[in-house]
Design goal:
Chain lengths: 235, 163
């Protein structure tokens, strides 16, 4: 009589254990998802109050991979190859982006931004939006903002057209032309041209930086502003 | 022959439980605190659609921890071994698929993950082979546990003897 009783109790335990295991996994998944979207929204909210700097007109340099080009024709030429979703590019931007922007604004160097998109659909969308911002003369500020809100999870769904337009709005790019350009993907052909030019220039990963046509090989493993500035000024 | 196996079986079972369970617990434990990294790692295999890959990346560390703990404590060993074995088969399949497509990635098995520099292709292929062999060994542990679930130092003694 005792034996079947034990068996019955064991089956109950079995189901309890299975249910608890499922609960643990489900809780883990839900908290991971919530944590992810919270981080993304917090980063977006962090853009509030950003003041847009004066517009700087850029051109598209078809000869050089259709890059977004500033101050064409100066002695020092910097080529920056980056993908808006690439986390290491964010490190570069954090350490050195402001300096690069100042070189552009003070007309001290020709700077070509090659906006790549090999990390997926959201890179294509963000790159397209970057070209839309360039049409408004606001690529520098938009690029800075993109990296500020870059999601640590690639292709998480965060950089929808809607979010990209709202990033623009938050930093002061409010024209309906920009919004239309983002929604319609008006500059996808340029995005593609940039992507296709990688092979021609021997670029295999991001970020890759050329100073006067030579790859910048850094000696300090973290991006270092002093090292970069020395490389630019010595070029 | 048979009687000598009968004598050692409970110890072999314990060993298999600790090997499979220990690896799962460590692999999962290293990843639970980094869900984003894990989700990026599963997406890097480019097998599932991105959203599903992210979901799998969130679930996997917890699943590994749960199965690992069940095996180590010796609770529902046969079920846990089947689950652990299936996970190993999925891992082996995923690595073979990546290898066959000529992709160069970090498996992200114990954290990390993602696309590697193409210049590392040769060492990545070596790593794939080691990973496949390791997972194969762990799958064999799971197979053994399916047939001999009752062993030493297991909490659920009576029930596993009845299985």
């Amino acid at each position: 009589m005792a034996k079947p009783q034990v068996k019955a109790r064991d089956n109950t335990n079995r189901w309890i254990i299975i249910a608890m295991a499922v609960l643990v996994v489900a809780t883990g998944v839900i908290f991971s998802m919530l944590g992810q979207s919270n981080k993304e929204n917090a980063a977006l909210a962090g853009l509030d109050g950003t003041k847009l700097k004066p517009a700087v007109v850029s051109t598209i340099d078809v000869e050089n991979g259709s890059a977004i080009t500033y101050n064409s024709g100066l002695a020092t030429v910097i080529d920056i190859w980056e993908d808006p979703q690439c986390p290491v590019c964010k490190n570069f931007e954090n350490a050195i982006g402001e300096y690069v922007n100042s070189l552009v604004r003070e007309k001290k160097a020709t700077v070509r931004f090659h906006v790549l998109s090999f990390l997926g659909d959201e890179s294509v969308r963000a790159a397209n939006a970057g070209f839309c911002a360039a049409d408004e003369g606001q690529y520098l500020d938009f690029n800075t903002a993109l990296y500020k809100v870059q999601s640590p999870l690639e292709n998480s769904g965060f950089w929808s057209g809607e979010t990209l337009i709202s990033i623009g709005k938050k930093i002061g790019i409010t024209s309906s032309k920009f919004a239309n350009c983002v929604t319609k993907g008006s500059n996808v052909a340029l995005v593609q041209a940039n992507a296709e030019s990688m092979a021609k220039f021997g670029v295999r990963g991001t970020p890759t930086i050329f100073i006067n046509g030579k790859v910048w090989e850094r000696e300090i493993s973290d991006f270092n502003l002093i090292e970069f500035r020395a490389a630019v000024e010595g070029a | 022959m048979k009687s000598s196996h009968e004598k050692f079986a409970p110890w072999l079972t314990l060993l298999a439980r600790l090997a499979l369970g220990g690896v799962l617990l460590v692999a999962g434990g290293l990843k639970v605190s980094k869900p984003t990294e894990s989700a990026n790692a599963t997406a890097a295999y480019k097998i599932l659609p991105t959203d599903l890959a992210h979901l799998a990346g969130y679930a996997l560390p917890w699943l590994e921890v749960v199965i690992g703990l069940l095996l180590i404590f010796g609770i529902m060993v046969r079920y846990a071994a089947v689950a652990g074995g299936l996970i190993m088969i999925v891992f082996i399949g995923a690595i073979i698929s990546v290898w066959a497509r000529g992709m160069v990635i970090d498996c992200g098995c114990f954290g990390g993950g993602g696309v590697l520099d193409p210049s590392l292709a040769a060492s990545a292929r070596r790593t794939y082979l080691i990973e496949i062999l390791r997972d194969l060994g762990l799958a064999l542990c799971a197979l053994y546990l399916y047939f001999f679930p009752s062993g030493k130092l297991g909490i659920e003694k009576t029930s596993s003897e009845e299985q």
